[in-house]
Amino acid sequence: MSTVPASHIAARIGAELRGADVPLTRVSPLSKAGPDSLSFLASARYRAALSETRAGAVIVKAKDADRAPCAVLVVENPELAFAEAVSVLHPRPVPQPGVHPSAVVHASARLDASASVGPLCVIEADVELGAGVELGPHCVVGAGSSIGPDSRLVGNVMVCSGSIIGARALLHPGAVIGREGFGFARDGDRWVRVPQVGRVRLGNDVEVGANSAVDRGAIEDTVIGDGVKIDSLIQIGHNVSIGEHTAMAACSGISGSTRIGRRCTIAGAVGMAGHLEIGDDVHFTGMAMVTRSQTVPGVYSSGIPAMPNADWRHTIARLKRLDALSDRVKQLEATVRALDAARDGADNEEGADNEEQVLDREQDQP
Amino acid sequence: MSTVPASHIAARIGAELRGADVPLTRVSPLSKAGPDSLSFLASARYRAALSETRAGAVIVKAKDADRAPCAVLVVENPELAFAEAVSVLHPRPVPQPGVHPSAVVHASARLDASASVGPLCVIEADVELGAGVELGPHCVVGAGSSIGPDSRLVGNVMVCSGSIIGARALLHPGAVIGREGFGFARDGDRWVRVPQVGRVRLGNDVEVGANSAVDRGAIEDTVIGDGVKIDSLIQIGHNVSIGEHTAMAACSGISGSTRIGRRCTIAGAVGMAGHLEIGDDVHFTGMAMVTRSQTVPGVYSSGIPAMPNADWRHTIARLKRLDALSDRVKQLEATVRALDAARDGADNEEGADNEEQVLDREQDQP
Amino acid sequence: MSTVPASHIAARIGAELRGADVPLTRVSPLSKAGPDSLSFLASARYRAALSETRAGAVIVKAKDADRAPCAVLVVENPELAFAEAVSVLHPRPVPQPGVHPSAVVHASARLDASASVGPLCVIEADVELGAGVELGPHCVVGAGSSIGPDSRLVGNVMVCSGSIIGARALLHPGAVIGREGFGFARDGDRWVRVPQVGRVRLGNDVEVGANSAVDRGAIEDTVIGDGVKIDSLIQIGHNVSIGEHTAMAACSGISGSTRIGRRCTIAGAVGMAGHLEIGDDVHFTGMAMVTRSQTVPGVYSSGIPAMPNADWRHTIARLKRLDALSDRVKQLEATVRALDAARDGADNEEGADNEEQVLDREQDQP
Q1: CA distances from A252 to A6, A225, B192, C214, C269 (A)
Q2: CATH of segment(s) B4-89
Q3: Which residues 321-340 on chain A approach chain B with CB closer than 8 angstroms?
Q4: CA distance C305 to chain B (A)
Q5: Could you give the CA distance from residue B242 to residue C282 in angstroms, rounded to a whole number?
Q6: Architecture of domain B99-300 in this structure
Q7: Is B328 strand, coil or helix?
Q8: B-contacting chains (≥3 CB pairs under 8 Å)
Q9: Average pLDDT of every residue of chain A
Q10: Across the interface, do B271 and C287 touch by the CB < 8 Å criterion?
């Protein structure tokens, strides 16, 4: 654990330091901080915690600076500044460049001298690893793949042959990039595999979570744009394309050939059918079932929130009887229409009577 | 990139070549093809693209042959023929037989001389690998397992002890075959693991996708029939059985002891409860929630498609008030019944009045 | 296959043996047992199978003992006793202590002499492995992690740096413990990763299934309580906490910072939003969509069970027209109110007439 003065962090994150230049050793939440802690306030919700924190220093917006009982680092975007500050206080150990002796590296692979290849990795023929690439233990990079500068494969990552990965990728354990996707032709009852000869191309700054899979294209490529963040346990089908800076939470699945725009957010456990067009700035809430293209920016949702089981059974039963309910309403409408008509008829008859009476009177006129 | 004459491909796929014997080097979609491309038309949707393609040759049905501005390879099932043609133009590199020196192979394992074991694989005791079996890097085959001829474990596949895998299997990275499933006995608040001593048996031509898991049986075996295709990120519980040629798309889960018939299709993210019976030729659409046995062939569905968030909130609110709506309809029915009865009563009273009037008149008759 | 006398098993499971001390070699379901099989009856559903079984011995409750046509082992909890008996008849081969020569172990790691490290494992700096720890092939234990006594990592398990794992853990293939979770700050359109510096702490007797991921905490720790059972293909987000003896079935996802109580059960494919509070003894049925905190013990559900596709289309259409139906009911209510008022008015007019008549009569009174 190293000690970093608040002023040093202020310089790194471009903050104005107000108060003492306290020595800091760690980041902590406001409510659990101590005098050696750096904390931050990103949401008004936690203002009460700010005024009671025992942190040594806190990253805040200018408007909150006076609430803090400690040194403050004033910035415009505390969350972003905090992200940087964490890496100052808790730097990730960077491995030595070079190839671990237990790794299996094909003679034709081109590894930048600054790249680091961990124990028991496998690097196949014609692979290219850029400057600063870091492969943790047990990674496999398939033949002909290239990985851009400063990308990090945490460990146990499988990059299948021919994949193209940009700079600063972060691929988590169990991620599978470039699997041959689910493409079959029918031959009577049998399914016959269609060889998948497209590739996966990941842009720069792409992240793929633990045990997620991005399938290679069938003929053309599967394309993941710059800055796309894919969480864990996500399946991306063949020929999908995802636009820049779209983020997807865990447990979602995108079927083949669907195209997703830029700056979308896809919450957890969303399922998307294939061959859809999803526009820019489209957002799906958790467990949404996406069966149609959505090109208008906005938030889309589906699913029934969990409720007590008895209520749910009741609701499902009602839902199944919606048809019957609708029929009853239709029947009521007919009956009421008849009643209404009868009343109008009665009114009209009265009117008719009056008219008759008038006529009668006229006739009665001598 | 090798060059293959169209006539050679025609011979391989049993097609009639009409037009020039063009040299081909690759497969392409109709709309992105060049003179060295082979393409195909499988769906009437793409007929417009066919007439405008710049492909060198196209695989088509006889009825579409005249629409193509290039050489055609005429077959009955273009998709199936294309699957074969892809492998002619883009043959997968086949590894040398033999065991990579970095692999760890138990002395008691029986490996066919034509089998190929990749770097850093682990083959435990009493394993049997058939002719032409191909293990990519980082595969583990547990003690006593057998893998049939021409099966391919792409890489990083885990086959747990005692698994039986048929011929021509294709197991994708991260697949876990034969995990000890989720079986517990209760001991007060505690869950006590019930040892899982059944096996997994995969038939011939079975495929298991990336990061999918097929659990071993508890006492008896989990059985996956011939030709079953299991996509990525799928969980198959213990003692499940799946009939021949059933296909399952990604992100689905099948709970323990459920039996699924033959030729079923299960779309993405379907969840099935345990101990169900699903008949032959039953099809589930995406995200279906399967809580009951379904033995009648047909298509089954559930789930609410995503809609704009405001509409969804409205719909959910309405759904929660379905009971109230139903009560209001019941109340209306009672009121309308009363009104109707009143009207009938009024009619009857009018009748009575008339009768009385008649009587009155009669009485009035002098 | 070894032979074990029924009396030996009775002693191990604390059962009373009634009948012959038959030699047993295996466990079987009641309906498929032979004279060398041990079976059990845990549910009244299978009583018919009990009376017809050909098993050599059956574990039963006292009240069912007379139904068995064979030797019985009488206990209070047959399922629990069976779990123990399975391990007597089918003991799991226990590996030799020591480190496989192909494993890569850092010099600073502290391994108990009774621990077993399988082929091609990677043990990083400052790792601690307790007595009886068993690592199957291809496991990685990251720097500074500790694994408690008698824990078993089946194979291909990734434990990321700094993870703390209690005693008797069972981690299945593909499990990823301590991944850096999905935490980002926004910088305009870009997502900037917030370094995740918390840890994962698993209590004692915790199980994590195949290809499941438990993310490390962002600042504080992700905490999984004693006896928690996590099935396959599950994602646990950063800073989640799960109370003792809670069990989760496959394909579920828990978003970050959600706190789940003790003794909960979470069925398959459940999705939980982040920052929720789930109390003790709360149970969710399969595919439940959990968007709100639930602190009252009980069963919670959501989702529409699958139905024939035509019915489903009809139901969804009705659901979308619920607003219209509700409006129609509102309209009906207005009309019926008007009709009712008209009838009441008629009644009132009659009454008024009567009053007038009365008045008239009074006036008529001479």
Answers
A1: 41, 18, 32, 17, 11
A2: 3.40.1390.10
A3: 321-322, 325, 328-329, 332, 335-336, 339
A4: 5
A5: 33
A6: 3 Solenoid (2.160)
A7: helix
A8: A, C
A9: 93
A10: yes
pLDDT at B264: 98
CB A147 within 8 A of CB A141: yes
Half-sphere exposure of B244 (CA within 13 A, CB side): 5
Which of B90, B93, B137 has its CB closest to that of A195? B90
Chain B CB within 8 Å of residue C225 CB: no
For CA atoms A174, A178, A184, A190, the dihedral sign is negative
Structure tokens at A336: 């009421």
In angstroms, the separation between the Cα of residue C60 and the nearest Cα of chain A is 33
| Cα radius of gyration (chain C) | 33
CA distance C171 to C153: 5
Please report which helix (H) or strand (E) contains residue B320, including its range: helix B309-320
Of the candidates C105, C140, C145, the residue with the CA atom closest to the CA atom of residue C129: C145
Q: Return the residue in B232, B318, B340 with the most chain A beta carbons within 10 A, the one to mutate for interface testing.
A: B232
Give me the catalytic one of C172, C238, C245, C314: C238
Task: Count CB pairs under 8 A between chains A and B.
Answer: 218
Do β-strands B298-301 and C307-308 pair in parallel, antiparallel, or remain unpaired? antiparallel
Cα–Cα dist C284/A153, whole Å? 36
Q: Which of chain C's residues have a Cβ under 8 Å away from the Cβ of B211? A: 174, 211, 233
> In the annotation, is B238 catalytic?
yes
Phi-psi domain of C84 (left: phi exceeds 0; alpha: psi -120 through 50; beta: other): alpha
At C248, which amino acid appears? Answer: M
Run means of pLDDT, 10 residues per run, chain C, 366 residues: 93 97 97 96 90 97 96 97 96 93 98 98 98 98 98 98 98 98 96 97 98 97 98 98 98 98 98 98 98 98 96 91 88 89 64 36 32
pLDDT in tens, chain B (366 residues): 689 999 999 999 999 999 999 999 999 999 999 999 999 998 888 899 999 999 999 999 999 999 999 999 999 999 999 999 999 999 998 899 999 999 999 999 999 999 999 999 999 999 999 999 999 999 999 999 999 999 999 999 999 999 999 999 999 999 999 999 999 999 999 999 999 999 999 999 999 999 999 999 999 999 999 999 999 999 999 999 999 999 999 999 999 999 999 999 999 999 999 999 999 999 999 999 999 999 999 999 999 999 999 999 999 998 888 888 888 999 999 988 888 888 776 655 444 443 333 333 333 332
Decide if C232 touches A, using CB distance below 8 A.
Answer: no
Across the interface, do A304 and C302 touch by the CB < 8 Å criterion? yes
Rounded-to-integer distance, Cα A140 and Cα A122, Å = 5
Query: Hey, which residues does A333 pair with through a beta bridge?
Result: none
Yes or no: say if A143 and A125 are a contact pair by the CB < 8 Å rule.
yes
CA nearest C336 in A: which residue?
A336
The predicted-structure confidence for A284-340, as pLDDT tens digits, reads as follows 999 999 999 999 999 999 999 999 999 999 999 998 888 888 899 999 999 888 888
pLDDT below 50 — which residues of chain A? 349-366
Residues 37-76 of A with CB under 8 A from C: none
Confidence (pTM): 0.93
Conformation bin of residue B159: beta by default, left when phi > 0, alpha when psi is -120 to 50: beta
Position C353 scores a pLDDT of 39
Does the domain spanning C98-300 belong to CATH 3.40.30.10? no
Residue B123: half-sphere exposure toward Cβ, Cα within 13 Å: 29
ipTM value: 0.92
Give how far C261 is from chain A: nearest CA, Å. Answer: 17
CA distance A194 to A183: 5
Chain B partners within 8 Å of C100 (Cβ): 104
Buried b (16+ CB within 10 A) or exposed e, C163-175: bbbbbbbbbbbbb
